Amino acid sequence: MMKTIRRIICLSISAVCVFWSCKDVAGPENPSDGIAPSVVSASLEDGASGVDVGLGQISVDYDVPVAIADASAIELTGMDVEVSTANMQVRIAFGKLTGNTEYTLTLADGAVVSRSGNVPAAPLVLTFTTGEDPDAPPYIPGEPGDYSQSLVTENPLPAASGLYEYLLSIYGKNTLSGAMAHVDWNTDEAQWIGIQTGKYPAIAFFDYIHLPDSPSNWIDYGNITPVKEWWNAGGLVGIGWHWNVPVASGSSTLTFNTETKDSDGNTVVNTFSAADAVVDGTWENGVLKSDLKEVADYLMLLQNEGIPVIWRPLHEAAGGIYTYGAGKAWFWWGADGAEAYKALWKYMFDYFESAGIRNLIWVWTTQTSSYSDADYAFYPGDEYVDIVGRDIYDNSDAGSIAGQFSAIAQMTTHKMVTLSELGNVADMASQWDAGAKWLFFMPWYDYDNDYTAGYAHQHADIAWWRSSFASPAVLDRQELPSDLFE
């Protein structure tokens, strides 16, 4: 919108009149002699909002021909500018602006003068605010540091606070090794690693994937023996949740994916809605509350034993929307988009708080691999997340992995960053040396592991583990301080 600054000026039908025929009214032989140039209009309105970040130029029109007397006196907040004139117009050119940012354009006293007479124009100040930058990541990269010093859980279990303080103390100096349970509720992979290398991973991860079948004669998450034995042996505990839900109201077909196969092998689309799940009265909300209560009860068993849990729910929500280009989420919790996902995360967080769960360290998993494909639209917010994780598979380039670490660390400057899942990637010694200073790392389990020394583990074989443990930065279970378990 053009801003017009009202001023009575002398005009004539003849172009000559602009300069000469008004002398009887204006007085001087040349109307610009001794008269300060006045602004007639500007291409941007003072106080404008939602301005395009690619605007590129602002022009200011005066009532007489003007010149630039002092280009350094023309400034646009934080931007390099190029200034030029065209008869009665001053043009200020600049590069791309930052989204959602307030800017001030200042033409200070003495910057602009009349071309005849060199009379200074009055100062001009225009303030405006840009709109969204469609090409920018939701988080503007910054320097990591000033990490959150306390857990997001209110009144956390002392053991959880102690563990978090320890994590803060080693971040950037060491990385904790981890291993995933073979499917769900065991330490088979961790034991295999320990037997073959002489070193046990620092963290054993578990999964509530079979929640609908627990308790049964083959799975019972109420039997916390595998977790308790690991903890008592001086190992840290992590738990994730591949959350299986009915694909439709009343259906016996369950999945955590956006689609699955039924008992007859037919493809079934999962209609369980993350958006509806947080709405009271929906069938999805009934499932949600029932499952959350069951998991809360299981987590309370661990809390009562004084065991803190590195908790990683609702992982990889963005799926292939960004990094992998498939255009859709993989899991039902991300299928309704970022806003629905964040509401679901907060619902779970608030539910566990109300249930008195105080032993969790919350890990959110990003799919971000660079600034250009950031999925931080799905980020629940600093007040709901303790650690940011990244899952990486099939990448033997340690430098590339280090680049991903750097991008994520600069996206979430107040949170530690971890390699929450991996498979078939460069060993941790190579990654660390390349600059990937992950807080911890965890290879995914092998589906057919026979636990022998030479087994060709599809995600991390024993040769990979030996190379990783060779790095002084990689900590195993024996190197954890004993006071974490008191």
Mean pLDDT: 90
CATH hierarchy: architecture of the largest domain: Alpha-Beta Barrel
Question: Strand pairing plus helix content: what structural class?
Answer: alpha/beta
With helices defined by DSSP (H or I, 4 residues minimum), what is the helix count? 12
Strand order of the largest sheet: 12-13-14-19-20-21-22-23
Rg (CA only):
31 Å
Please give a structural write-up.
By secondary structure, this protein is of the alpha/beta class. The protein has helices at residues 15-19, 23-26, 158-170, 188-197, 225-232, 274-277, 283-304, 332-335, 338-354, 398-411, 428-434, 462-469; strands at 3-4, 39-42, 48-51, 57-62, 66-68, 74-76, 81-86, 89-94, 102-107, 112-114, 124-130, 175-180, 203-207, 236-241, 245-246, 254-255, 259-261, 267-269, 309-313, 360-366, 387-395, 416-425, 440-443, 474-475. The protein folds into 2 domains: 3-130, Immunoglobulin-like (Sandwich); 158-485, TIM Barrel (Alpha-Beta Barrel), CATH 3.20.20.80. The strands form 6 sheets. It has an 8-stranded parallel barrel. Strands 1-2-4-8-7 form a 5-stranded antiparallel sheet, with no helix packed on it. Strands 3-11-9-6 form a 4-stranded mixed sheet, with no helix packed on it. It is elongated.
Task: Compile the SSE list and pairings.
Layout lengths: L2 E2 L10 H5 L3 H4 L12 E4 L5 E4 L5 E6 L3 E3 L5 E3 L4 E6 L2 E6 L7 E6 L4 E3 L9 E7 L27 H13 L4 E6 L7 H10 L5 E5 L17 H8 L3 E6 L3 E2 L7 E2 L3 E3 L5 E3 L4 H4 L5 H22 L4 E5 L18 H4 L2 H17 L5 E7 L20 E9 L2 H14 L4 E10 L2 H7 L5 E4 L18 H8 L4 E2 L11
Parallel strand pairs: 3-11, 12-13, 12-23, 12-24, 13-14, 14-19, 19-20, 20-21, 21-22, 22-23
Antiparallel strand pairs: 1-2, 2-4, 4-8, 5-10, 6-9, 7-8, 9-11, 15-16, 17-18
Helix pairs in contact: 10-11
